[in-house]
Amino acid sequence: MTTTNILSLLGGLALFLYGMQMMGNGLEAAAGDRLKQILEKLTSNRFLGVIVGALVTAVIQSSSATTVMVVGFVNAQMMTLQQAVWIIMGANVGTTITGQLIALDVSAIAPLVAFMGVALIMFTKSAKATDIGQIIAGLGILFIGMNMMSTAMMPLRESKEFVELVTHFSNPLVGILVGAGFTALIQSSSASVGILQALAASGVIGLDGAVYVLFGQNIGTCITAVLASIGTSREAKQATAIHLSFNIIGTTIFTIVCMFTPLVSWVIHLTPYNATAQIANMHTIFNVCTTILLLPFGKYLAEFAQHILPIENKEIEDERLLYLQPLPKSKKMIGGAAISVKQINDETMHMLSLAYENVNQAFDQLLQFSDKTDEQIYKREDTVNYLDKVISEYISTALATPNLNVNISQALSSYYLMLVDIERISDYAVNMNHQATKRLQGDMTISEIEIVEHMKKLCVDMKNDLDDVEEAERKDDVIDSLVSSWREAQIQALKQKKCSSEVSMMLSRIFTDFERINDHALNVSQELDKITVEIPD
Q1: Separation CA 136–CA 123 (nearest Å)
Q2: Running DSSP on this structure, what letter comes out for residue 402?
Q3: Distance separating alpha carbons of residues 526 and 532, to the nearest angstrom
Q4: Which residues of 175-187 are buried (b: 16+ CB within 10 A; e: fewer)?
Q5: 220 and 353, same domain (yes or no)
Q6: Of the N and C termini of the chain, which has fewer Cβ atoms inside 10 Å?
Q7: Could you say which residues of the chain have pLDDT below 50?
Q8: Residue 350, domain CATH
Q9: Is the domain of 230 the same as that of 348?
Q10: pLDDT one-digit tens code per residue, 78-128
Q11: How far apart are CA 139 and CA 59, in angstroms?
């Protein structure tokens, strides 16, 4: 091969991989906030789970990306390991669509497909149309790259050294190792199968020499999920183990079948004059049959993964952080934004509950002071401050993610603003706790005690209606009116010497803290109302 051929081969591979990335990014932007809901609703049934996994993979042309997404969902406890089994099986079926499209030789219309996608991106104002255009353009670029690779490999037919090298692939172990190693290197079975088809289209290799390489490619594609699971939970690693065991079992079965049956000859005779179709058909047969064979044993695959990677009872790094988990480290991560929103929502609501625990205990302190409760409030305030810092940093990272869906971007921004209000709610609770002294409690009148109890009840009611912004706004108006009347009554009581000046000053500060707590609560309610992303339970 000349230098021009080599450069053309590398350029074609670059376009192929970039096309897949574009399609994944397009799907992320188009359906990132709904992807989790779609998967969750359809994976309760194993057959639907396989179909969904296959369809998602067919759209993004990458089983690795689908598997990494599943690893992320399992890691965030948004999906069970059993649900993950069916999607992983479906992903292996869906990835065969790339090979079949290549076999159909759609490279002639690939430039037109790419042009249509770019036209949608450049000349439409709709965000949804732009996202779809990105998927279409990615598909066209993928096949332009495939055509470049096939053309670049044509001279290899004349290379005796290369022909001699590929004949060794007929050795099952060599072929499997070569296929697995090369696919692990470029982290894409679709791309490695495409290169194998390009070799076949150039007349360099036939199915009898390529079949074991093809099986090895299915094992090599697992490396992306393996790398993505590093640093994640044990459950996420179990999902990766399922993906790996699925392909190893399939490779073992089909290697034996090909060695002792005429399966390869039969597949060749299906399309005797189309080498690329032969590889595509074998790839499809491998994944479809392996899925059918293992479908009844999905439960046992999950149990096997749990057996070899049992959950460790290790100490949590910081028990104050309950929900935020690091996302899988992979550029192929699809659905990462949806995972981030779910985790941020849960952690923010956890922070809100802690702030209101402080509010409730602060009111109790006004009525009966306790040194133990005083310590609990300050300890909880430290936790709220810690969560404010960590969640803010997590949101900042999530907002920097490319191709963010508009709804997800709005949700992240709203949570970011909420953190300030929640932190202030806890601060005002600490202020009230500071006002609670043993000396003043004995000086409070019955009516003043009733006011404190009423304020506590109103705070609880306000928190319970934060998901209804209209009701929260109504209650805030009621609270403002009540505080105004209480202040007036307190001034009159002070004039008539019916209360001490110390208690009056304390209540005045409490009224301010109480009013501001509910003002910040209303801000939280208004930000929650802006969030249109459905948050799964």
Answers
A1: 14
A2: T
A3: 12
A4: bbbbbbebbbebb
A5: no
A6: C
A7: 314-317
A8: 1.20.58.220
A9: no
A10: 778 888 888 889 988 988 887 887 777 666 788 898 999 999 989 888 878
A11: 9
The tokens for 125 are: 């104002």
Torsion of the alpha carbons at 470, 471, 472 and 478, rounded to the nearest 10: 110
Query: In 124-262, where does DSSP find H-type helix?
Result: 127-152, 160-167, 172-186, 189-201, 207-220, 222-228, 234-260
Give the Cα separation of 234 and 321 in Å (integer): 18
What per-residue string of b and e applies to 321-338 under the rule 16 or more CB within 10 Å gives b? Answer: bebbbebbebebbbbbbb
What is the average pLDDT score of the chain?
83
Q: The tokens of 337 are what? A: 């934004």
Q: Side-chain half-sphere of 99: how many Cα atoms within 13 Å?
A: 32
Tokens of 44: 């309760």
How deeply is 57 buried, as exposed, middle or buried, from its count of CB atoms within 10 A (0-12, 13-18, 19+)?
buried
| Cβ atoms 462, 521 nearer than 8 A | yes
Q: What does the pLDDT read at residue 252?
A: 94
Half-sphere exposure of 389 (CA within 13 A, CB side): 7
* Digit-coded pLDDT (tens) for 440-453: 555 777 888 889 99
pLDDT at 334: 61
Whether residue 237 sits in one domain with residue 386: no
Same domain, 275 and 347: no
Q: How many CB atoms lie within 10 A of CB 382?
A: 11
State whether 286 and 354 are in the same domain: no
Provide the residue range defining the domain that includes 185.
7-295
Both structure tokens of 374: 């005083």
Closest by alpha carbon to 363, among 418, 422, 441?
Answer: 441
